Amino acid sequence: MAGRLLGLTLTWLMAVFALAGPVSGIQVSCSSGYNGAFVSSTECFNLDFSTFLHEQLDLGWSGIRQDRQVRGAGKNSLTQSISGNGYSLQNDIASEGAFGVSTSSVATAEAASLSQDAAGVGSMGLALSGTQGSRVAGQDANVEFGTLSSVQSLSVGQDVAVSSQSTAMAGKEGYVGTEAFSESNTILAAGSFQGAGTLQAQLCSAATERAVADGVASLDGVV
User: Fold this and answer.
1) Beta 75-83 vs 63-72: how paired, if at all?
2) Torsion of CA 215, 216, 219, 223, to 10 degrees
3) What are the residue ranges spanned by the domains of the chain?
4) In the prediction, which pLDDT does 24 show?
5) Around Cβ 198, how many Cβ atoms within 10 Å?
6) What is the rounded distance in angstroms from the CA atom of residue 35 to the CA atom of residue 52?
């Protein structure tokens, strides 16, 4: 009985924990599941010492929930990889300057979803992609020497991958894009500028049996 109680206590302690910064060069890995149905998450943080990060990971038999807030300045990069049965999700953030990002994700062995609100001043790049078998949906946004704000989402599972973003930027150079790949076709929608400019876009893409994309964008106020 004592051994069983100790085991249950250790499981609970591992199930919920938090990290607070400033931090640098940290990797966090965890997994959850049973009966051959597993999900795993790996994160890598390379943060400036001015940057504050707080994260909570909730682990249960059914999956992983993550909530993360990060803010600071300097040069920073954060990556997250989630994988389950037949799918994977990748989230990459790079920033040089002042920035703030709030990210939430929920993952089970069969599916995962992620939502993110990001803003930065200086240079910033965001990249999200999800793979379900041979089907892929993803998006990118980056700006050089300017400002960027973006609300993003990505979901993968049940033989479909879907991504969306609402992004606004102004700066010296900028790019925004969304893409999808399926067994039958590939589609890419993108916009960019070089030289001082502004760009706003609401884009989405999905990969099922066919790849589709939709949205609207404006460059320097011209749709």
Assistant:
1) unpaired
2) 160
3) 16-217
4) 61
5) 16
6) 38
